[in-house]
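note to self: the first set is below, dont mix up w the second
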Amino acid sequence: MRTETYVYMHILNFLPGDSFINAHLPPILPGYAAMLIAACILNYKQAVELLAVTIVVIFFLAWDWLMQRYGDLLCQKVWLMVFPIARVVYAVLLVMLVCWLVFDTAKSGTRQLVSFAGLVLLILLMALFSKRPTRIHWRTLFWGVGLQFVFGLLMLRTDVGLKALQWVGNKVETFLSYSNSGAKMVFGESYEDHFFAFKVMPSIVFVSTIISVLYHVGFMQWLILKIGFVMHVSMGTSLTESTAAAGNMFLGQTESLLLIRPYIHQMTRSEIHAVTAGGFASVSGSILAAYISLGVKASHLLTASIMSAPASLAIAKVFWPETEPAKVSREIKMPRGETNNLLEAVAQGACSSAPLVANIVVNLIAFVSILAFMDETLSWLGALFDYPQFSFSLICSYVFAPLAFVMGVSWEDSFIVGELIGIKTFLNEFVSYERLSVLIKNREEGKPEYVGIVKQYISIHSQTIATYALCGFSNFGSLGMIIGVMNTLAPERISDFTDCGLRALTAGSVACFMTACIAGKAVSLFSELRPNDMPNSVPNSHCWSPLSPS
């Protein structure tokens, strides 16, 4: 049974041995318990966070202990109980979803149904153009979208979820603010004058260092296995796919591939497609820190990263269904950190961020320059026909505006969000987020919504959907990079990598759009949205662009 083998993989690699536990826990636990009790008595409001972390750690330690000793028996018992009633459970959940849609629509109006219709449309299109439509594994799709929905509704619709998400987002922003100390020491008090280079980039160095430390102590591998375990058991995906998808939540495309490096040459073409699509549908923790530093909400970025992981597996398996038995069905061994001690992990994490920072900076310079050149060239050509507003950005806004609209963006904002999606797809997601950050800043500074016929910012609802839709490496530049990396890891599979490339890019993009649709359905519409969303004229996106030459 695959569940049993994954349980073995899940617990054997990173659980401390009994000798370690027996030697270190007895003297530590009483002192820690006394400290926790004293902290709760003296200052409960500040100690509640430590108490919550302690409860979570105890739960997972107990879970690992239970699975290590009784995992096979529990899996068999649960499987025997669940399998006979699985279809009934699916039917009940489907009825509950329909009832919720009816009541929610009656309460909030039909506007948000557009997002749900967009989600259904995206899935139907992917099924229609599937490699093998008759071999689609519907369980994977059902659970993938279901996990998206459940997490999205819990985080974005419930009071507890919203408060938890806001709390986590605030903590992440506070945590990232510590990178300012290093930036100030190196670049001086006026480091914010060069915001992107001296404020945003240091956050990448800081987060890269922390991830290296977490990798050294084994926490990152442990967390990836935990999340991969949930997706493997619920969605029925293979071990390699589940592990890579979980790794994509925290690591970059190439780092996630290194987690399954020994198994790439054995993977089926459908698995290669799913792993590649997962890389396109996510961003690394270090890059996430840069987006947060730009002013994009941390809570929405974190939610998008988590929701897109099951979505990428689900839609990848629709677009390229599995027709071969998985060759990797036994224990997967996660690579341990190569550092010998904590200080070496800190140094290695900091140094490894240097190429990433340099890559981001030079690519951003190149892509923004190319975009400006293309816009001006097309504007010059358009001026020959008395239409100087013609530009690459404007083309993107027209092409992708319908997609933005079906995701739930208001019609008057669809052209701006469509432009952001187009720039992200053809150039770079960093450029799109930089432009989105300017729109956010314009709103927060209270600038007028229109200057002439040109919108200066978009609604909060549209802004939220755009945040989710852009959160992924799904662009043509990343396609070339990931094929090159996979060719280095398994050169004998280069033909399979190239065959899967464009389909994986499409699947990764659609996974991001699915997440945006669910966010559009889950996030409440704000009062600023007017009933009549159709503008009298299309916004001239080239005019509002903060990156256009003056």
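second set (the one i keep forgetting abt)
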Amino acid sequence: IQCAETFKRSDGPKVVMGILNEFDHNINILNSGFAVVAAAASGNEILKEAFMELNIDELLVQLIVAQNGSNIQSLFDALRVLLTPDDTRVLASQVSVRHRMKYIILFLVLLLSDSWRYHLLLSDHFF
């Protein structure tokens, strides 16, 4: 717990997000960075919230689409940790539900935009 508090106080989430955003094309850095996210956020609702405030959800979805999810296992580990509630308190549960809803909306937008692009592609070729 003390390490997590030190990580939060020293702007650890912000530093990690800066690295992930800057090196979003480097698979090794992404794997290492998301491993840090998963380890830091595991069992810590405060750090989960800190990462969510820094829009890690948007980065995760963007990378899943851009990389086709390949070779970034720690990305999925981080996603699982961020979406899994660690606390039975009502407030913490509400935060987790809000996070899940945000991911669902992002994935639906991506799904719909991909479907729309596919529809336009078909109509260009067949109509």
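remember for set 2: The longest helix spans residues 90-126.
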